[in-house]
Amino acid sequence: MFSRSQPGRVAGNKNRLVLAAVVMTAAVGLSGCTGPSAEDDQQVITIFGEQGGQIDLNTNSFTKVLEEKFDVDIRFETTSYGASEATEARQISLAGGDLPEAYMLVPWASQFSRAELQRYGDQGLLVQLNDLIEVHGPNISAALDEEPGFRELTEAPGGEIWGLPQWNDCYHCSYPYKFWINTQWLSNLGLAMPTTPEEFFNVMTAFKNDDPNRNGEADEIPLTGSTQQSLVPYIMNAFIYNAFNTGSGASGQPVSLGLSGDTVQMQTMQDGWREGLAFMNRMWDAGLIDPATFSQGGDTMTATGNAAQGVLVGGFTAIHPGFAVTIGQEDGRDNQYDPLPPLTGPAGEAATYLLPSVPGATFVITKEADEVEQQKIMEIMNYMFSPEGHIRAQFGEEGLGWRAPEEGDVALDETLEPSLFDIPLDEENEADYNGNWGPMAQVFDTAGFRNAQIQPLDIYTQEGFERRLFQATELYEGKETDAMFPYWNVWVPAEEASALSTLTANIESNVATATAEFITGVRDPDSDDDWQAYLDGLSGLGVERYVEIWQGAYAR
Hints:
Elements: E1 17-21, E2 44-50, H1 61-70, E3 72-76, E4 78-79, H2 83-95, E5 102-104, H3 114-122, H4 130-136, H5 138-146, H6 148-154, E6 167-168, E7 178-182, H7 183-189, H8 197-209, E8 221-224, H9 232-236, E9 257-260, E10 263-266, H10 271-285, H11 298-305, E11 313-318, E12 337-340, E13 344-345, E14 348-349, E15 363-365, H12 371-384, H13 387-395, E16 402-403, E17 421-422, H14 430-433, E18 444-445, H15 447-451, H16 465-474, H17 494-520, H18 528-540, H19 543-555
Parallel strand pairs: 1-2, 1-3, 2-4, 2-5, 6-18, 8-11
Antiparallel strand pairs: 5-15, 7-11, 7-12, 9-10, 13-14, 16-17
Helix pairs in contact: 5-6, 10-17, 17-19
């Protein structure tokens, strides 16, 4: 149902080059691998990597494939996929004075930011990859030519390539703030899908008052959300276009920004934002929003969706319904939630688009790698950009992790020829769960690569879940507006990156807190004094400078 997300191997033949991926956990710091002797030092390549679940990079069968193909030995020590743990471990490795020769990461854990790439590149810690790609990376060169967006994401303003991001053209991820409404409840109450904010309010009121789950109790929660899955963006888009998120991205990306023509502005300081806050405050006062929405974690939100007493939730905003209810339940409750198209409000009909590929780099080579080691590492990465290497790295062995098309198979995008079927993971079979590098290998997942994969036609099965998301996203595609600020394509000068990082954290965190307070009535969105105090607070945090830096970078 979901993408494979796993990755390893160790050996010690002196006649072969050794790749020793030196990764430490946050709890123990540098963990116990003895370094190479002085005489073997030039034969040892260290790589910092990440793994999760049942994966062991030290015994992983794809690692063995690389060992045999490139005549190398690969040693892996790993940190986890957890963002805080992985980031701390990566920082320890950078500061420890014993750099690895390379880093291979996953986007959501501890990948390098653009600011870090520029800083470490200027300091000489990272190897510029342009020449290595030109000589030893023909598949990577072809990928940069094939996808202009990948090149734009990869190259610094001067054309330097300090690292490679993953290009993951995930269609359903491109519109992450989809609203999932309980259509069984709509049917039970004889209601149609709402199309405007006022109709939305009325439907949620019926969900609260009219016993749509038919259990005779007033236990329904019309709307819920979490600190990771904010209900704000979907509703707010009816009042002003936004990429806002109170979740993990709020302190790391400029999600409050938008465009007015070519002018960068704070969407969260505009009259439309205030109007949207007033509408959501009205919903809060009517008891339509789960009181835990702005404080609970994702696990608690899911636990409510899975409540033993029955179906309690009317709707939520999330990239997919699995964030609010476990997919594949025996009672079929997860199939009650269908996508609600964008509401048409004062701002028209709008949906937030975000580039699914993350700016920065998951792959870098450090100054510790000599020329021979640089070449070997680049050849391995280049293989992962080939059709054969990509599929083997991401899905595992044919017949075990994936299979070729059969008669009657249909691609996710039905206009494409089907390419492969991702066989559901067998968590009891080590050859399957430890047979690929999973998310570390999603180096160049183009739309064609992803959408040509085989998916069953029944969207309400676990096997057809990706098609369910594909079809849901079609309701949102193309509804972004000219107010979208494409921050992922904007490189901020290195000399301003440190100040911007602080400004981003402070301002976006303040906006997230104030948004929750306006919605829940701690502040009054109808009070001019409260609104001005909010604007003044942002001004005191340097919001004018924040916008100025992004405006300058956008204009370059």
